[in-house]
Specification:
alpha/beta, 8-stranded mixed sheet, 15% strand
Amino acid sequence: MKQTRVALVTGGNRGIGLEVCRQLARSGVTVLLGARDLQAGKAAAGQLASQLNVTAVKLDITSDPDIAGVRAHVEREFGALDILVNNAAVLIGEDSSILEVSDAELRDTFETNVVAQLAMCRAFVPAMVARRYGRVVNVSSTAGQLQSMGTYAPAYSISKTALNALTKTIAESVSGTGVLVNCVNPGWVRTDMGGPHAPLSVEQGADTIVWAATLADNGPTGAFLSGRRKIAW
């Protein structure tokens, strides 16, 4: 039996992703920090690696070769992945209205925020099912919450609604296998995406993601989580 859990965090070289890497590693998890730019990933991992077990891997989640390469690395070095945090995302056409957002903006947003998230799950979840253990956290947003949805960033918001639906579907498909799949709203966080006036720190934004990534076996699955509790879709 492996001594430590192994996690992969996409978009791990800055913001919430980097803080998730830090908090997971502090809890004793071996962390693979995924970054589109490997040098940026190595620089970020270098901030943590002196005391924590964090290694950068090149991972553009829209690149099938990159995903295959990381999966091969995981299989070779660890056998399988225990924790997948799908954090990487794009925010395009933030100020466009739904009637103005371009087809290209919609396609590019969905390619990263939905299609690539499914590709990551297809790459790593089957091995979790085979081992009867896994935690998948898809980083979502209340921008995609139907209950409160408005006009903000339509491509991004609709993509997060789709991500929530994807999360629910995957969770149902692996029900009873020991793999828990949830989506998390980190809140409005002070990052490059969230801006300097957001009310939450990256430490606060990462908290529920890390909690969901390390749930006990009787933890929730197929849920939309915020502040360590279930919220409405």
